[in-house]
Amino acid sequence: MHCSVANSLRRAMIAEVPTMAIDLVQFIENTTVLADEFLAHRLGLVPLVSHNVDQFKYTRDCTCTEYCKDCSVEFTLHVKCTEPGTRIVYSSELISSNKDVVPVTEGDDQGVALLKLRKGQEINLHCVAKKGVAKEHAKWSPCAAVGFEYDPHNNLRHLNYWYEKSIKDEWPLSKNAEEETENDPDAPFNYKAEPTTFYFNVETVGSLEPQAVVVKATRVLQEKLGALQLALEEDQNPDTTANMDDAEPWV
C-alpha cells in the first residue's frame, strides 16, 4: 500500500464516516447567562452514540418535509435551578426519543458539562439530531485524532534526524518498532524499497468504536473507487452508454 492510500484512509476516517449530531435547536426558555447561539453550538458538538447510524437516512434523501424518525432523533432538555449555589447541566440530561442514540458517557461520567445555572435560572429546549459527515461540519466527525506511522526503524531513510550526541537516546523508538526488525547498517541500501506496513492510531470521541471507523472508512474508499471505475468505463465507451440510453424499456 502506498503512503497516499494510507493518507486517503486517514482522511476518510476523519471526514467521511457518518455519525449522528445535533443539527437543530429550538429554545423555549433560556434565562442563563449564555446566549442561544452559544448553547446551540455547544450542543452540536456533543458526541452521540452512533452504532446504528446506518439505519437512518440523510435528510436530503428522506421524503419527510422537515424531520422524522427515519432521518432524525429528537432530544429535550428542561432544567431549573431551585436551590442556592451552582447547578451544572450535563449532556447526559438530554432526553432522547431513541434509546440507541444518546449522548456518549462512560461509567459514572455524566458527559459534557453544557452550562451552569444559578438559583432561579432555567433552560428549556428541543433538539433534532441528524445524520451527516464531517466534510459538511466537524461536529459529525467520529474521530478526535488519527495518525499513522511506517518504518519505525527508519530503514528506508525517509527521515533525517537532528541530534546532538546519540540518535537512539534523543529519538526513542515507538511501540511499533517491536513489530519489525532493524536493518543491518552495513548492508547495501535498497533505494527502490517502499513501505509495506502502516500502523494507525485511531482515537474516537466515543460515537463509534475505532474498529468500526476503520471498516466504514474502507467501505467509503471502495465505493468512491467503484464510482470512479464506472465513470472511466463510460467515458471510454460512450457509444455503448448511448445505445443503452436509446434502448427501448423492458416490458
Explain what this protein looks like in three dimensions.
This protein is an alpha+beta fold and about 250 residues long. Helix content is about 25%, strand content about 25%. The chain has helices at about 5-15, 35-45, 165-170, 210-235, 240-245; strands spanning about 20-30, 70-80, 85-90, 95, 115-120, 120-130, 145-150, 200-205. A four-stranded antiparallel β-sheet has the order 1-6-2-4, with helices on one face. Strands 3-5 form a two-stranded antiparallel ribbon. It is flat. The model has no long low-confidence stretch (mean pLDDT about 90).
Write the layout of secondary structure elements.
Elements lengths: L2 H13 L3 E12 L5 H9 L27 E9 L5 E5 L4 E2 L16 E6 L3 E11 L10 E8 L16 H4 L27 E7 L5 H27 L1 H9 L5
Antiparallel strand pairs: 1-6, 2-4, 2-6, 3-5, 7-8
Helix pairs in contact: 1-4
